[in-house]
Amino acid sequence: MNDIYETPLNSRYASDEMKRLFSNDTRFKLWRKLWIALAEAQKELGLDITDEQIEEMKRYAEDINYEVARQKEKELRHDVMAHIHAFGEQAKKARPIIHLGATSCFVTDNADIIIMYEALKLIRKKLVNCIKVLSDFALKYKDMPTLGFTHFQPAQLTTVGKRAMLWVQDLVMDLEFLEYVMEHTYLRGVKGTTGTQASFMALFDGNEEKVKMLDKLVCKKMGFEKSFPLTSQTYPRKYDFLVLSVLASIAQSSYKFANDIRLLQHLKEIEEPFEKTQVGSSAMAYKRNPMRSERICALARYVMVNIQNPLFTASVQWLERTLDDSANRRISIPEAFLATDSILNLYHNVASGLVVYERMIERHIQQELPFMATENILMEAVKRGGDRQDLHEKIRKYSMEAGRNVKEFGKENNLIELISNDPSFKLSKEEIQAILDPKKFVGRAPSQVQEYYNEYVKPILEKYKDDLNFESQVNI
């Protein structure tokens, strides 16, 4: 509908797969699966629950009567109770034992963790694929010299591939962080109203071992080995901060990459993909704007700022909990994932189609390299019998003259011509040009690229080889 606001993350940017993960349908079906897992575990541990009741619950696990749930929520002002009633109207025999001994956070928190975990797996897949395409690019161009920049001023040479492998390294660090968070993702489990498991102690007549086993059984049925050792009414909200920190870290890396591409596109050295029918400007038909990289930066800024939400939410959970987390988490967590998903779709698309303009890169090198190579020229001239101090002063003067020609008069850099015309250097123009071979000025950059790939990237690609089947799509 066009007459009601819809978040652009949903309508324009995020993938269908990520949107489905955070849909109401996914969320409420997980609630029902959790209620079934709870009933099964309680039955296995001796509570008076029948197979017939459990089978009835399973029959309606995927068939949610949403209209009933909506009507009940209007009456009760409580979403979990509304869905308990709706489930009970379908599974009538199971109605007395649905949600037995549990608090609302049994379904809400456990479901949220499961959704976030599945979302992290999708993020991981896209992150690994970005690492793959970008490292391929880095290997392809590992030997190609390019002008380095510090403070966006010309500096020593590097290579196109080395610069790209620095972007890869950022993503690898993000992947390591993401893996850490996933390895430390636990369910809330079955902890009761304030996390003491008191209601379940009552159900099992004070049998602590059965209560502990109930927690383990439910986790296992939901695909997890562990629950948080301690909870209040909710799982520790610090976990949300860790998860969104990963997403913010990915956003930061993506921002750096996209910002660099924007600068390089300004220099006409590297461009993001630009389709034949794409329009760069409504007014200036000739323009090729770095639209996708700009969008990465825009979305990344949103994710990076959003990290403030779980920070504040976790810090103000009074004692065993307060409900001011709920409305905030409904927005901040899904939208952080949707935005990061969008960023990685764009990142992969841009990295897969980067266009390198070698002649322009060479031109920029030739404009600056003579200044950078003066020490090498000086040393060679001294070897041929020149006086180091006299030659140093001459190079200084020639460099000033050449710099003035470039900056004040817009001429080409003629430093090499000035030096070769001075007989005291005893160097021909051809000999100076040989000294100016750009590949002599990139240090170990090509080796660094290959070594980093072999030691860090290759093991990642082997570990996640089954995930390397992602094709990015940009909707708009």
Automatic annotation (TrEMBL):
InterPro entries: AdenyloSucc_lyase_C, Fumarate_lyase_CS, Fumarate_lyase_fam, Fumarate_lyase_N, L-Aspartase-like, Pur_lyase. One of its GO terms (biological process) is 'de novo' IMP biosynthetic process. Its EC number is 4.3.2.2. Coiled coil: none annotated. GO terms for molecular function: (S)-2-(5-amino-1-(5-phospho-D-ribosyl)imidazole-4-carboxamido) succinate lyase (fumarate-forming) activity; N6-(1,2-dicarboxyethyl)AMP AMP-lyase (fumarate-forming) activity. Pathway: Purine metabolism; IMP biosynthesis via de novo pathway; 5-amino-1-(5-phospho-D-ribosyl)imidazole-4-carboxamide from 5-amino-1-(5-phospho-D-ribosyl)imidazole-4-carboxylate: step 2/2; Purine metabolism; AMP biosynthesis via de novo pathway; AMP from IMP: step 2/2. Gene3D superfamilies: 1.10.275.60, Fumarase/aspartase (C-terminal domain), Fumarase/aspartase (Central domain). Pfam families: ADSL_C, Lyase_1. It catalyses: (2S)-2-[5-amino-1-(5-phospho-beta-D-ribosyl)imidazole-4-carboxamido]succinate = 5-amino-1-(5-phospho-beta-D-ribosyl)imidazole-4-carboxamide + fumarate; N(6)-(1,2-dicarboxyethyl)-AMP = fumarate + AMP. One of its GO terms (cellular component) is cytosol. The keyword Iron does not apply. Belongs to the lyase 1 family. Adenylosuccinate lyase subfamily. Signal peptide: none annotated. The keyword RNA-binding does not apply. This is Adenylosuccinate lyase. Keywords: Lyase, Purine biosynthesis. Residues 369-453 form the Adenylosuccinate lyase C-terminal domain.
